[in-house]
Design goal:
The complex is a heterodimer of chains A (342) and B (293). By secondary structure, chain A is mainly alpha-helical. Chain A has helices at 3-31, 60-69, 79-82, 89-98, 102-109, 113-144, 151-163, 166-177, 182-191, 202-229, 234-242, 247-275, 279-283, 293-301, 309-341, and strands at residues 34-35, 41-48, 51-58, 74-75. The longest helix of chain A is centred in the last third of the chain and has 33 residues, at 309-341. Chain A is globular. Chain B has a domain at 87-238: MetI-like fold (Orthogonal Bundle), CATH 1.10.3720.10. In chain B, 77% of the residues lie in helices and 0% in strands. Chain B is globular and about 75 Å long. The chains are: A mainly alpha (342), B mainly alpha (293). The interface between A and B is large, with 108 and 103 residues.
């Protein structure tokens, strides 16, 4: 296709992506270097029969005037990046000097909002992704062994958790797990602990959200693996059966190598999706004990008094860096393949 | 994989069946339970005393005189203004799907027919864009949108959702276009068609399965979106998913939690119907590009 034709065909979609994906990233980058204005204060002298007092009040007029003149805020450089709510360089230095043991130091650091969120996000990715692959593969194998006639409805049932939006999916589970719901109430009875509830324990909350993640993402892995299983050639498997290979050996040495490229694809996609985990935290109302990077940004953006653009943007930029680190191996590999293909 | 030589032991068969039944229970029961509970009053579905009330409908019987009540639905749809939210969802979804498909088919066709290097790099860029968490993009939008005073209205959200959706649509349609033989449009070009005519009259008619699949995914994205709609729309223009969340936040009066339950059911039911009818397309879409390696 000539370049000119290509240009016109691609223009609309390219423009949409540049304007609403490319530019926002730049806009986020710029915003992250600014912070919201401080409030302008003035001294007010108040006198009454008992004497004069000087009090400091916010000068509403001047504050709003400054905000109007420079809506982006004041230039802050990398200030937002290193403040307490983000990388907290200063605080970490302080903890390093003040704490006695390494454990205590780690404890202090992981209580800082950014590190807390980072750790939750990574833990979530680390536990959900492999389990999604595993469960998806097992479901695909066992559905594949079922008579063809009833597979349709079974597949429909299997993909339900995936097609609902994460907020709805987590709400539906939350209403059951909650102390007043069917599972929660039964667990209380089983454990003989009337105060057992999701919100009471951080570990329980994390486990619940991770289980939710596996529940929500496994169907995707299942669908892809199931389709891949249909393309596994029959001859080597029959040969293996004749040679006396056990079922496990067949899966291990024939099926798995055949679907290996698909496994990397699913792992990559689910890693990307898990890294942005955020809606389940709202669905499970777990803000108290589990925060993710995306949730931090959301929280800044829905801030009641003044939207913390700078803070949200700084977290966003660091999230993008995280995504870049996650994607780097894949991109480098693709680039190498591309170069050798030429 | 029904191997002629393969003999399954009975134990394996039983294990397999049990596993599938257990998994299906895990996958579907929460939805069935929520559907069931949406016809009860709050004191039953969220029972402090005994969860068994949700089945016997003890309080529902007391409060409404029947075992099932549709109060939650009628209140959420009228008083809770869920009708407005669902109308907004319909508008957003319709335009997102139409515009996405229009832009996506043009772009993906060009990508699939180009032999240049830049086509490859565009696809890689699209993959990177696909990986961006939506919330980071939203944090980029909010400030300029406030300044331009286009925040809060439906058209802005529609354009944003179309753009966010483009990388995935491009990849999906690209892999579908690749399966249409090049000779088809080349012969049309030789006969004197322009590229656009070849695209319009020769390629599009054979592309319907791919277009339907891509349309379904755009639809699911627009319909299910929370991040963008919750932050870029004002209260008045909220679509269904942020509306459900707003029912959770306002706990002042008792009805609200049941509103959320009935709203969840109302929002999920059409989606399930759709997937039931188009199951084949959904699955082919998820696996396009993946299975070919």
């Amino acid at each position: 296709m000539p370049n000119k034709t290509f240009f016109w065909f691609f223009l609309p979609t390219g423009l949409a992506m540049i304007l609403f994906i490319g530019l926002p990233i730049i806009s986020t980058g710029i915003q992250s270097f600014y912070a919201q204005h401080d409030q302008v204060v003035k001294e007010v002298k108040k006198c009454d029969p008992f004497g004069c007092t000087v009090s400091i009040v916010v000068d509403q007029e001047k504050t709003s005037k400054i905000r109007e003149e420079k809506p982006l805020g004041k230039f802050n450089g990398f200030g937002t990046y290193v403040d307490r709510n983000h990388l907290a360089i200063e605080e970490i230095g302080k903890f390093w000097n003040e704490t006695n043991s390494f454990g205590e130091f780690v404890d202090q650091v992981t209580n800082l909002p950014f590190y807390k969120a980072l750790i939750f996000t990574l833990t979530y990715c680390l536990f959900v992704t492999p389990n999604v692959l595993l469960l998806g593969f097992i479901i695909a194998l066992s559905l594949n062994a079922v008579t063809r006639r009833i597979r349709g409805p079974l597949i429909f049932g299997t993909i339900l958790p995936m097609i609902v939006t994460p907020l709805v999916g987590s709400l539906v589970l939350f209403w059951m797990i909650d102390a007043e719901g069917i599972i929660g109430a039964n667990l209380q009875m089983l454990m003989d602990d009337p105060y057992l509830s999701l919100k009471s324990s951080k570990t329980l909350t994390w486990i619940t959200i991770i289980i939710y993640g596996i529940w929500h993402h496994s169907p995707f892995a299942f669908v892809v693996f199931y389709a891949a299983l249909q393309t596994v050639p029959q001859e080597p498997i029959e040969a293996a059966i004749i040679d006396g290979a056990s079922r496990w050996q067949r899966v291990r040495h024939i099926v798995l190598p055949h679907i290996y490229p698909v496994v990397t694809f699913v792992a990559l996609i689910s890693l990307m999706d898990n890294f942005r985990v955020f809606e389940p935290i709202i669905g499970f109302s777990a803000e108290g004990s589990a925060q993710s990077l995306s949730w931090l940004i959301y929280d800044n953006l829905v801030n009641e008094e003044v939207i913390l653009f700078g803070s949200a943007a700084a977290t966003s930029m660091m999230t993008i860096v995280g995504i870049a680190i996650l994607l780097a191996p894949v991109l480098i590999r693709t680039w190498k393949e591309f170069r050798t293909a030429r | 994989m029904e191997y002629g030589l393969d003999k399954r032991s009975n134990a394996l068969k039983i294990f397999n069946t049990t596993f599938i039944i257990v998994w299906l229970l895990v996958a579907c029961f929460p939805f069935i339970w929520t559907f069931w509970g949406s016809f009860k009053v709050r004191a039953d579905f969220f029972s402090r005393a005994d969860w068994w009330y949700a089945i016997t409908a003890f309080n529902t019987l007391l409060e409404t005189g029947g075992k099932f009540t549709t109060d939650a639905y009628s209140q959420a749809w009228t008083e809770g203004e869920f009708w407005k939210a669902s109308r907004n969802t319909v508008i957003v979804t319709f335009f997102v799907v139409t515009i996405s498909l229009f832009l996506g088919t043009l772009g993906a066709y060009a990508l699939s027919r180009s032999t240049r290097n830049y086509a490859f790099w565009i696809l890689i860029a699209a993959l990177i864009f696909r990986a961006m968490p939506h919330i980071t993009l939203v944090s980029g939008y909010l400030f300029p949108f406030f300044q331009l005073q286009i925040w809060g209205i439906l058209p802005t959200t529609i354009v944003v959702l179309v753009a966010i959706n483009q990388p995935f649509t491009l990849w999906l349609l690209y892999s579908f276009f690749k399966t249409v033989p090049k000779e088809l449009d080349e012969s049309a070009l030789i006969d004197g068609c322009s590229y656009f005519q070849a695209f319009r009259h020769i390629i599009m008619p054979v592309m319907w399965p791919g277009v339907i699949t891509a349309g379904l995914f755009s639809l699911m994205l627009a319909y299910n979106d929370f991040t963008v709609t919750a932050l870029l729309l004002n209260q008045e223009n909220h679509t269904m998913v942020p509306k459900i969340q707003s029912y959770l936040g306002t706990n002042q009066h008792e009805g609200n939690l049941m509103w959320a339950v009935s709203a969840v059911v109302s929002a999920t039911a059409p989606l399930f119907m759709l997937v039931m009818f188009f199951q084949r397309q959904v699955i082919s879409g998820l696996t396009a590009g993946a299975v070919k390696g």
